[in-house]
Design brief:
The complex is a heterodimer of chains A (285) and B (100). Chain A is globular, with a radius of gyration of 21 Å. Chain A contains five helices and 25 strands. With 285 residues, chain A is an alpha/beta fold. Chain A has three domains: 2-112, Spore Coat Polysaccharide Biosynthesis Protein SpsA, Chain A (Alpha-Beta Complex); 125-238, UDP N-Acetylglucosamine Acyltransferase, domain 1, CATH 2.160.10; 244-279, no CATH class. Chain B is 36% helix and 27% strand. In chain B, strands 1-2-4-6-7 form a five-stranded mixed beta sheet. In chain B, helix 1 (23-33) packs parallel to helix 2. Chain B starts with a strand and ends with a strand. The chains are: A alpha/beta (285), B alpha/beta (100). The A-B interface holds A 206-210, 212, 219, 221, 224, 226-228, 230-232, 234-236 and B 19, 50, 52-53, 80-81, 83-85, 87-90.
Chain lengths: 285, 100
Amino acid sequence: MDMTLICPGDASEVPALARKRPLVLAPFLGRTVLEHALTALAESGMKNIRILASDHPEDLRSLVGRGEAWGMTVQVVPSSPRTCDEHNPASSAEPILILDHLAQLPQLPLWQSYRGWYAAQQALLPALARRRVGMREIALGSFVGLRSQVAPNARLLGPCWIGEGVWIGSQAVIGPGTVIEDGSYIDEGAEIAGSIVGPRTYLGAFTELRDSFAWGSDLLHLDTGSLTEVGDRFLLGEVQTQRGLLGCLVQAVRGICAAASSPQRGPGPASLSGAGVRLEPMPQN
Amino acid sequence: MKTQYEAKTLTLSDIQELNAVNSAAFRDAARAALKEGLTTLDIDLSQTRLVDSSGLGALIALHKTMCARGGAVRILHPNPMVQQVMELTRLHRVFEIVKT
Protein backbone atom coordinates (compact mmCIF):
# COMPACT_ATOMS: atom_id res chain seq x y z
CA MET A 1 0.00 0.00 0.00
CA ASP A 2 1.25 3.46 -0.90
CA MET A 3 1.28 6.56 1.25
CA THR A 4 2.48 10.14 0.95
CA LEU A 5 3.97 11.63 4.07
CA ILE A 6 4.16 15.42 4.16
CA CYS A 7 6.75 17.01 6.42
CA PRO A 8 5.49 20.41 7.58
CA GLY A 9 7.68 23.29 6.55
CA ASP A 10 6.05 25.83 8.84
CA ALA A 11 7.92 26.03 12.14
CA SER A 12 6.61 29.45 13.10
CA GLU A 13 5.25 28.25 16.44
CA VAL A 14 8.34 26.22 17.36
CA PRO A 15 11.24 27.90 15.53
CA ALA A 16 13.88 26.66 17.95
CA LEU A 17 13.17 23.05 16.95
CA ALA A 18 13.94 23.82 13.30
CA ARG A 19 16.92 26.09 13.91
CA LYS A 20 19.61 23.58 12.99
CA ARG A 21 17.75 20.74 11.34
CA PRO A 22 14.36 20.00 9.79
CA LEU A 23 11.43 19.99 12.18
CA VAL A 24 10.64 16.31 11.69
CA LEU A 25 14.18 15.41 12.80
CA ALA A 26 13.57 16.83 16.27
CA PRO A 27 14.55 14.28 18.92
CA PHE A 28 11.68 12.28 20.34
CA LEU A 29 12.32 9.54 22.89
CA GLY A 30 15.47 8.06 21.45
CA ARG A 31 14.71 8.64 17.80
CA THR A 32 13.39 11.39 15.61
CA VAL A 33 9.75 12.21 15.00
CA LEU A 34 10.15 11.03 11.40
CA GLU A 35 11.52 7.65 12.48
CA HIS A 36 8.60 7.11 14.85
CA ALA A 37 6.17 7.99 12.07
CA LEU A 38 7.80 5.55 9.65
CA THR A 39 7.71 2.81 12.27
CA ALA A 40 3.99 3.35 12.77
CA LEU A 41 3.40 3.27 9.01
CA ALA A 42 5.40 0.07 8.63
CA GLU A 43 3.41 -1.57 11.40
CA SER A 44 0.17 -0.57 9.70
CA GLY A 45 1.22 -2.44 6.56
CA MET A 46 2.48 0.35 4.33
CA LYS A 47 5.02 -0.71 1.73
CA ASN A 48 5.83 2.39 -0.28
CA ILE A 49 6.23 5.82 1.29
CA ARG A 50 6.81 9.06 -0.54
CA ILE A 51 8.05 11.81 1.74
CA LEU A 52 7.49 15.39 0.64
CA ALA A 53 10.02 17.64 2.34
CA SER A 54 10.71 21.31 1.82
CA ASP A 55 13.35 21.78 4.51
CA HIS A 56 16.71 20.10 3.83
CA PRO A 57 15.37 16.95 2.17
CA GLU A 58 18.94 15.66 1.88
CA ASP A 59 19.07 15.41 5.69
CA LEU A 60 15.95 13.27 5.67
CA ARG A 61 17.33 11.13 2.87
CA SER A 62 20.56 10.45 4.73
CA LEU A 63 18.58 9.39 7.80
CA VAL A 64 15.98 7.09 6.24
CA GLY A 65 17.92 5.92 3.18
CA ARG A 66 15.56 3.96 0.98
CA GLY A 67 13.58 2.67 3.93
CA GLU A 68 15.46 -0.59 4.42
CA ALA A 69 15.35 -0.26 8.20
CA TRP A 70 11.55 -0.33 8.09
CA GLY A 71 11.14 -2.95 5.40
CA MET A 72 9.55 -0.37 3.12
CA THR A 73 10.48 1.57 0.04
CA VAL A 74 10.92 5.19 1.02
CA GLN A 75 11.50 8.03 -1.39
CA VAL A 76 12.27 11.56 -0.26
CA VAL A 77 10.98 14.15 -2.71
CA PRO A 78 12.05 17.79 -2.41
CA SER A 79 9.13 20.16 -2.62
CA SER A 80 8.31 23.78 -1.99
CA PRO A 81 6.99 24.90 1.39
CA ARG A 82 3.78 25.93 -0.38
CA THR A 83 3.28 22.40 -1.68
CA CYS A 84 3.78 20.92 1.77
CA ASP A 85 1.66 23.39 3.67
CA GLU A 86 -1.23 23.63 1.25
CA HIS A 87 -1.51 20.04 0.10
CA ASN A 88 -5.12 19.04 0.49
CA PRO A 89 -5.50 15.40 1.53
CA ALA A 90 -9.11 15.31 0.40
CA SER A 91 -8.18 16.10 -3.19
CA SER A 92 -5.62 13.34 -3.54
CA ALA A 93 -6.21 9.80 -4.68
CA GLU A 94 -3.58 8.16 -2.50
CA PRO A 95 -3.52 8.24 1.30
CA ILE A 96 -1.74 11.26 2.70
CA LEU A 97 -0.46 11.86 6.18
CA ILE A 98 0.75 15.23 7.38
CA LEU A 99 3.38 14.79 10.04
CA ASP A 100 1.96 17.30 12.47
CA HIS A 101 1.10 14.56 14.95
CA LEU A 102 2.02 10.95 15.55
CA ALA A 103 -0.37 8.17 14.69
CA GLN A 104 -0.50 7.04 18.32
CA LEU A 105 -1.54 10.51 19.44
CA PRO A 106 -3.94 12.05 16.92
CA GLN A 107 -5.25 14.45 19.55
CA LEU A 108 -1.85 15.97 20.34
CA PRO A 109 -0.43 18.31 17.69
CA LEU A 110 3.36 18.31 17.75
CA TRP A 111 4.26 21.68 16.33
CA GLN A 112 1.75 24.16 17.75
CA SER A 113 3.85 24.81 20.83
CA TYR A 114 6.93 23.53 22.58
CA ARG A 115 4.65 22.25 25.32
CA GLY A 116 2.76 20.17 22.76
CA TRP A 117 5.95 18.50 21.59
CA TYR A 118 6.93 17.86 25.22
CA ALA A 119 3.46 16.58 26.16
CA ALA A 120 3.48 14.10 23.28
CA GLN A 121 6.71 12.62 24.57
CA GLN A 122 5.36 12.35 28.09
CA ALA A 123 2.25 10.62 26.79
CA LEU A 124 4.22 8.01 24.86
CA LEU A 125 7.09 7.58 27.30
CA PRO A 126 5.94 4.41 29.12
CA ALA A 127 4.76 2.62 25.98
CA LEU A 128 7.87 3.38 23.93
CA ALA A 129 10.18 2.58 26.85
CA ARG A 130 8.68 -0.89 27.18
CA ARG A 131 9.14 -1.49 23.46
CA ARG A 132 12.73 -0.28 23.23
CA VAL A 133 15.28 -3.09 23.17
CA GLY A 134 17.39 -3.21 26.31
CA MET A 135 15.54 -0.49 28.18
CA ARG A 136 14.75 -1.39 31.79
CA GLU A 137 12.47 0.12 34.42
CA ILE A 138 14.86 0.41 37.35
CA ALA A 139 12.49 2.40 39.55
CA LEU A 140 8.79 3.13 39.31
CA GLY A 141 8.32 4.90 35.98
CA SER A 142 12.07 5.42 35.51
CA PHE A 143 13.45 3.78 32.38
CA VAL A 144 17.13 3.42 31.57
CA GLY A 145 18.62 2.34 28.26
CA LEU A 146 21.58 0.18 27.30
CA ARG A 147 25.12 1.13 28.36
CA SER A 148 23.90 3.89 30.65
CA GLN A 149 25.41 4.43 34.07
CA VAL A 150 23.51 5.91 36.98
CA ALA A 151 25.44 6.71 40.15
CA PRO A 152 24.16 4.73 43.14
CA ASN A 153 23.25 7.87 45.05
CA ALA A 154 21.55 9.62 42.14
CA ARG A 155 17.78 9.89 42.47
CA LEU A 156 15.38 8.98 39.70
CA LEU A 157 11.82 10.27 40.07
CA GLY A 158 9.48 8.80 37.47
CA PRO A 159 8.27 9.27 34.94
CA CYS A 160 11.64 9.69 33.31
CA TRP A 161 13.46 8.34 30.28
CA ILE A 162 17.22 7.89 30.26
CA GLY A 163 18.41 6.82 26.84
CA GLU A 164 21.39 4.74 25.73
CA GLY A 165 24.95 5.53 26.73
CA VAL A 166 23.92 8.19 29.26
CA TRP A 167 26.01 8.97 32.33
CA ILE A 168 24.29 10.26 35.48
CA GLY A 169 26.63 11.57 38.18
CA SER A 170 26.43 11.23 41.92
CA GLN A 171 23.67 13.05 43.77
CA ALA A 172 22.00 14.08 40.56
CA VAL A 173 18.20 14.26 40.71
CA ILE A 174 16.40 13.26 37.51
CA GLY A 175 12.68 13.72 36.97
CA PRO A 176 9.78 13.74 37.15
CA GLY A 177 8.80 14.39 33.56
CA THR A 178 12.35 14.28 32.24
CA VAL A 179 13.77 12.84 29.03
CA ILE A 180 17.53 12.46 28.62
CA GLU A 181 18.47 11.47 25.11
CA ASP A 182 21.25 9.10 24.04
CA GLY A 183 24.88 9.85 24.78
CA SER A 184 24.29 12.68 27.24
CA TYR A 185 26.32 13.33 30.36
CA ILE A 186 24.67 14.71 33.50
CA ASP A 187 27.31 15.80 35.96
CA GLU A 188 27.14 15.38 39.71
CA GLY A 189 24.54 17.24 41.68
CA ALA A 190 22.60 18.43 38.65
CA GLU A 191 18.82 18.55 39.02
CA ILE A 192 16.42 18.14 36.13
CA ALA A 193 12.63 18.24 36.18
CA GLY A 194 10.01 18.63 33.49
CA SER A 195 12.68 18.96 30.84
CA ILE A 196 14.31 17.34 27.84
CA VAL A 197 18.05 16.97 27.40
CA GLY A 198 18.90 16.46 23.74
CA PRO A 199 21.32 13.87 22.34
CA ARG A 200 25.01 14.11 23.31
CA THR A 201 24.53 17.03 25.65
CA TYR A 202 26.65 17.81 28.68
CA LEU A 203 24.87 19.33 31.70
CA GLY A 204 27.27 20.75 34.26
CA ALA A 205 27.67 19.92 37.91
CA PHE A 206 25.11 21.42 40.30
CA THR A 207 23.10 23.03 37.55
CA GLU A 208 19.31 23.06 37.55
CA LEU A 209 17.13 22.49 34.53
CA ARG A 210 13.38 23.03 34.78
CA ASP A 211 10.71 23.28 32.10
CA SER A 212 13.40 23.50 29.46
CA PHE A 213 14.91 21.80 26.45
CA ALA A 214 18.71 21.74 26.47
CA TRP A 215 20.52 20.52 23.37
CA GLY A 216 24.21 21.22 22.93
CA SER A 217 24.72 24.76 24.15
CA ASP A 218 21.14 25.79 23.29
CA LEU A 219 18.76 26.32 26.17
CA LEU A 220 15.08 26.73 25.41
CA HIS A 221 12.33 27.46 27.91
CA LEU A 222 9.33 25.33 27.03
CA ASP A 223 6.74 27.86 28.24
CA THR A 224 8.17 31.23 27.22
CA GLY A 225 9.97 30.02 24.08
CA SER A 226 13.03 32.00 25.14
CA LEU A 227 16.16 30.56 23.54
CA THR A 228 19.67 31.33 24.70
CA GLU A 229 23.04 29.93 23.77
CA VAL A 230 25.08 29.23 26.88
CA GLY A 231 28.69 30.21 26.30
CA ASP A 232 30.25 28.30 29.18
CA ARG A 233 30.81 24.68 28.25
CA PHE A 234 31.19 23.62 31.85
CA LEU A 235 27.54 24.60 32.32
CA LEU A 236 25.97 23.31 29.12
CA GLY A 237 27.37 22.11 25.83
CA GLU A 238 27.86 19.32 23.38
CA VAL A 239 29.57 16.18 24.64
CA GLN A 240 33.09 16.36 23.29
CA THR A 241 35.03 13.45 21.90
CA GLN A 242 38.51 12.81 23.21
CA ARG A 243 40.98 15.06 21.49
CA GLY A 244 44.43 16.46 22.04
CA LEU A 245 47.36 14.81 23.74
CA LEU A 246 45.31 13.00 26.36
CA GLY A 247 42.99 11.62 23.71
CA CYS A 248 45.97 10.47 21.64
CA LEU A 249 47.48 8.72 24.63
CA VAL A 250 44.21 6.98 25.50
CA GLN A 251 43.80 5.85 21.92
CA ALA A 252 47.45 4.76 21.81
CA VAL A 253 46.95 2.48 24.80
CA ARG A 254 43.75 1.10 23.32
CA GLY A 255 45.47 0.55 19.99
CA ILE A 256 48.37 -1.30 21.59
CA CYS A 257 45.94 -3.51 23.51
CA ALA A 258 43.97 -4.20 20.34
CA ALA A 259 47.13 -5.02 18.40
CA ALA A 260 48.28 -7.38 21.16
CA SER A 261 44.98 -9.24 21.15
CA SER A 262 44.75 -9.54 17.36
CA PRO A 263 48.26 -9.38 15.88
CA GLN A 264 47.07 -10.27 12.41
CA ARG A 265 45.29 -6.94 12.07
CA GLY A 266 47.49 -4.11 10.96
CA PRO A 267 46.71 -0.45 10.57
CA GLY A 268 44.75 0.22 7.42
CA PRO A 269 44.89 3.23 5.14
CA ALA A 270 42.41 5.14 7.30
CA SER A 271 44.40 4.64 10.47
CA LEU A 272 45.15 7.49 12.80
CA SER A 273 48.62 8.45 13.84
CA GLY A 274 49.87 10.47 16.74
CA ALA A 275 52.77 10.63 19.19
CA GLY A 276 54.73 8.20 17.00
CA VAL A 277 52.11 5.50 17.24
CA ARG A 278 49.87 4.30 14.45
CA LEU A 279 46.44 3.24 15.52
CA GLU A 280 43.37 1.69 14.09
CA PRO A 281 40.29 3.89 14.25
CA MET A 282 38.01 3.07 17.12
CA PRO A 283 34.97 1.09 16.02
CA GLN A 284 31.89 3.22 15.53
CA ASN A 285 28.72 2.19 17.25
CA MET B 1 27.29 51.95 33.46
CA LYS B 2 25.05 54.46 35.21
CA THR B 3 24.81 54.88 38.97
CA GLN B 4 21.91 56.36 40.88
CA TYR B 5 21.59 56.89 44.61
CA GLU B 6 18.24 57.00 46.34
CA ALA B 7 18.01 56.86 50.14
CA LYS B 8 19.96 53.74 51.13
CA THR B 9 19.86 52.17 47.67
CA LEU B 10 22.40 52.28 44.89
CA THR B 11 21.11 51.34 41.45
CA LEU B 12 23.46 50.29 38.66
CA SER B 13 22.02 50.33 35.15
CA ASP B 14 22.87 50.58 31.44
CA ILE B 15 24.94 47.39 31.53
CA GLN B 16 25.26 45.93 28.04
CA GLU B 17 27.17 42.74 28.84
CA LEU B 18 28.69 40.99 31.82
CA ASN B 19 31.36 38.69 30.53
CA ALA B 20 35.05 37.85 30.85
CA VAL B 21 36.00 41.14 29.19
CA ASN B 22 34.27 43.56 31.54
CA SER B 23 33.09 41.70 34.64
CA ALA B 24 36.15 42.52 36.78
CA ALA B 25 35.91 46.21 35.87
CA PHE B 26 32.17 46.16 36.59
CA ARG B 27 32.75 44.56 40.00
CA ASP B 28 35.48 47.05 40.93
CA ALA B 29 33.43 50.03 39.75
CA ALA B 30 30.42 48.84 41.71
CA ARG B 31 32.46 48.37 44.85
CA ALA B 32 33.97 51.83 44.44
CA ALA B 33 30.50 53.31 44.14
CA LEU B 34 29.31 51.77 47.40
CA LYS B 35 29.04 54.45 50.10
CA GLU B 36 28.69 54.09 53.82
CA GLY B 37 25.14 53.42 54.93
CA LEU B 38 23.91 51.80 51.71
CA THR B 39 21.88 48.69 52.45
CA THR B 40 20.59 47.73 49.00
CA LEU B 41 22.42 47.35 45.73
CA ASP B 42 20.05 47.13 42.77
CA ILE B 43 21.58 45.87 39.54
CA ASP B 44 19.34 46.63 36.58
CA LEU B 45 19.93 44.00 33.88
CA SER B 46 17.15 45.11 31.56
CA GLN B 47 19.70 46.31 29.00
CA THR B 48 21.99 43.32 29.44
CA ARG B 49 22.11 40.98 26.47
CA LEU B 50 24.72 38.54 27.74
CA VAL B 51 25.85 37.20 31.09
CA ASP B 52 28.43 34.44 31.26
CA SER B 53 30.11 32.72 34.20
CA SER B 54 32.51 35.64 34.71
CA GLY B 55 29.58 38.00 34.95
CA LEU B 56 27.83 35.70 37.38
CA GLY B 57 31.04 35.62 39.40
CA ALA B 58 31.03 39.42 39.60
CA LEU B 59 27.41 39.38 40.81
CA ILE B 60 28.31 36.83 43.50
CA ALA B 61 31.31 38.91 44.58
CA LEU B 62 29.03 41.94 45.02
CA HIS B 63 26.52 39.80 46.88
CA LYS B 64 29.25 38.76 49.33
CA THR B 65 30.36 42.37 49.71
CA MET B 66 26.84 43.54 50.50
CA CYS B 67 26.18 40.63 52.88
CA ALA B 68 29.35 41.56 54.80
CA ARG B 69 27.91 45.08 55.16
CA GLY B 70 24.56 43.74 56.31
CA GLY B 71 22.89 44.61 53.01
CA ALA B 72 21.58 42.77 49.95
CA VAL B 73 21.73 42.72 46.15
CA ARG B 74 18.63 42.73 43.99
CA ILE B 75 18.60 41.89 40.28
CA LEU B 76 16.14 44.07 38.37
CA HIS B 77 14.34 43.16 35.16
CA PRO B 78 16.65 40.54 33.64
CA ASN B 79 15.63 39.59 30.12
CA PRO B 80 14.42 36.01 29.65
CA MET B 81 17.79 34.79 28.36
CA VAL B 82 19.69 36.16 31.34
CA GLN B 83 16.99 34.76 33.61
CA GLN B 84 17.51 31.31 32.04
CA VAL B 85 21.25 31.39 32.78
CA MET B 86 20.58 32.45 36.36
CA GLU B 87 18.12 29.60 36.80
CA LEU B 88 20.53 27.11 35.21
CA THR B 89 23.17 28.09 37.75
CA ARG B 90 20.64 28.29 40.61
CA LEU B 91 21.48 31.92 41.28
CA HIS B 92 17.78 32.77 41.23
CA ARG B 93 17.78 31.17 44.68
CA VAL B 94 20.59 33.44 45.86
CA PHE B 95 19.41 36.81 44.58
CA GLU B 96 16.08 38.51 44.89
CA ILE B 97 15.02 38.96 41.28
CA VAL B 98 12.54 41.68 40.40
CA LYS B 99 10.97 40.82 37.06
CA THR B 100 9.57 43.30 34.59
